[in-house]
Write a structure and sequence with these properties.
With about 230 residues, this protein is of the alpha/beta class. It is about 30% helix and about 30% strand. It folds into two domains: about 130 residues, 2-Layer Sandwich (Nucleotidyltransferase, domain 5); about 80 residues, Nucleotidyltransferase, domain 5 (2-Layer Sandwich), CATH 3.30.420.40. The chain contains eight helices and ten strands.
Length: about 230
């Protein structure tokens, strides 16, 4: 199956095109600039680089959060439009699961993190079992010090949620194993690898679905005057 993957949930945004498990090409935003304003031209450029067109695609994969509200909304809206126009399947992958897929198969658990502010992060825990990615603890919000302090075995850590607190965490003697630098950011490659499994299972996103924000948007916070997470 030929499919397009999009990661737009964080500042590290990218697109990739796959044929089954093979990554054909990928493009990432440059110099920290957001991909979303130039998303369609970037996708066109990506497909042209491997002599493909949108009409050649047979499936779509998109990151559905957690992450930035604008990036998630634009990413899902764009891929939903492609889905309807091309009449091809669309699946959604947790940003944190896609991050875990950056790391090769290992016997160790994988802690994926995305920074929110200071020590507060989105996080989830995964493990490889029989060459399948299994979610041990679902996406949630927490204090990275408490999360790492609660680990019961050596754990591979990924994402900026732990990296922005790296010095403090390592000084506390937690059993953390750093993933290589090129695995530390959410990527369309990771989203695509995870999404391929869902495409094979036909685990499609329902029409009208919304991103997995976990916490309320700024507008919702303004209404409620609360920063409490909603799930």
């Amino acid at each position: 199956m030929l499919f397009l993957a999009l990661e737009s949930a964080t500042s590290h945004q990218s697109v990739a095109v796959f044929r089954d498990q093979q990554l054909l090409a990928s493009l990432a935003c440059e110099s920290g600039q957001p991909l979303t304003p130039q998303l369609i031209p970037t996708i066109d450029r990506l497909l042209s680089s491997v002599s493909l067109q949108l009409s050649n695609l047979e499936g779509l994969v998109v990151s559905i959060g957690p992450g930035t509200f604008t990036g998630l909304r634009v990413g899902l809206a764009t891929m939903t439009a492609f889905r309807l126009a091309l009449q091809i399947p669309l699946v959604g992958v947790s940003t944190l699961e896609g991050l875990a897929w950056n790391h090769p198969v290992t016997e160790l658990p994988l802690l994926s993190t995305i920074g929110i502010r200071q020590e507060i992060v989105y996080w989830a825990l995964f493990r490889w079992e029989n060459h399948r990615m299994v979610c041990v603890k679902e996406s949630r919000i927490g204090d990275i010090m408490e999360v790492c302090g609660g680990l019961t075995e050596p754990t591979v850590v990924l994402g900026d949620g732990w990296m922005q607190n790296r010095t403090t965490l390592l000084s506390k003697g937690f059993s953390l194993i750093e993933a290589p630098p090129d695995e530390q950011w959410p990527s369309a490659k990771g989203i695509g690898l995870a999404g391929r499994v869902l495409l094979e299972r036909r685990a499609l996103l329902p029409l009208g679905c919304t991103p997995h924000y976990i916490q309320p948007s700024y507008a919702e916070i303004s209404k409620t005057k609360s920063l409490d997470p909603i799930g």
